[in-house]
Amino acid sequence: MDCKKESNTKYCNCTYPCSRHGFCCDCLTYHRSSGELPACYFPNDIEKGYNRSINNFIKIVNDRGTGYLK
Ligand code: SF4
Asked: How far is the CA of 63 from the centre of ligand 1 (A)?
């Protein structure tokens, strides 16, 4: 399977300067090991705060629902 970096990057809303942009498998592994989720699980206004914790994700979903993920 070829890496889908180019097409993945279209859906990446991460504003942090990072070499994993578009490398979703590496991105997920990195954040999972820290009890976090990747930037794309968060709305843009929250993503830029860089709090990628699962607790923050739950708070956002409880506050806003999941419609922003579509
Ligand atoms: S979500 Fe995290 S690992 Fe993924 S590109 Fe952004 S900073 Fe890098």
From this structure: 23
Say if residue 27 is exposed, middle or buried (CB neighbours under 10 Å; 0-12, 13-18, 19+): buried
Query: If DSSP codes are grouped into helix, strand and coil, which group holds residue 23?
Result: coil
Averaged pLDDT in 10-residue chunks for the chain of 70 residues: 93 96 97 98 97 98 95
Q: Which ligand 1 atom minimizes the distance to the CA of 16? A: 7
pTM higher than the cut 0.70: yes
Say if ligand 1 is within 6 A of residue 30 CB: yes
Delimit the domains of the chain by residue range. Answer: 18-69
